Every structure is written in structure tokens, then in C-alpha cells.
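Quick start: load a record and inspect it. Here is DUF721 domain-containing protein:
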Amino acid sequence: MKKLNEILSHLKKNPEFRKINTSSTIEKFIEVLPLKLKKGVKFAYIKGETLYFVLTHPVYKMEFEYNKADIKSLLKIANFENVTDIAFFISNKIEKKEKIIKVEPLYKERAKGVFFNKANDEKIHQKFENIRNIIKES
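Running the structure step on this input writes:
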């Protein structure tokens, strides 16, 4: 029986899965970039003979333009087929940050906090009194 990594490596070698190989190569290339550049990359893709970097902020675009020669030299080392140029642009799409929604109970508290506290232990007696106060406040 074949192991999972053997099956995946066999599938990667098929020409039908060329995009998987390209995307994994791009991800590895992004990991090789210096940290100050790597942080600004949202994602990258190849179109034609150009490797496009989608950046998160205009400051990163200036950094990429400044280090364009270094990135091209890394590109030659990474052995990208048919990639001769690189381009950078900033995404216009605003990322939506999920707001944390505090869920309030959808029911009205029906208890009045009227009960007999028959606890003998002082700690347990105090806990029941705290529960009574919470019910009365709500």
C-alpha cells in the first residue's frame, strides 16, 4: 500500500496538475524573500511571462521597487520557467475584519431570585447568594 506522500508526489508530476506545482513554487519563493518584503505579500501569481505580487500596502510597493534587482536575482536562482519580469500592485479590495458579536440571551429571565438557601457550608451558601444577586440584577 502506497503512502500518502508518494501518491501526492506522483500526482504533482502529472502535467494536469501543473498549476499546483506553480502555486507551491510561488509559495516557496515568497518564503525565501526577506522578512520585510514577505510580510507585505498578500499573494502572487504568474500571467504570461510576468510574476505578479499583490501587496497589502503602498509602502511595501516602494520596498519591492527598491529591491527589484534582488528579487530578479532570486527569481533566476528559483528556476521559474518562462518568467522574465516581475510586477507589483496593491489590491483595491478592502479586507473585511470580522466583528466579534456579543450574544445576549434572547429570553427574559423569569426567575425572581426567591428561594431558600439551605446550604450548611459557608462557601456554598455564599455561592447561592451570589447566584441570587445575579438573578435579581437581571
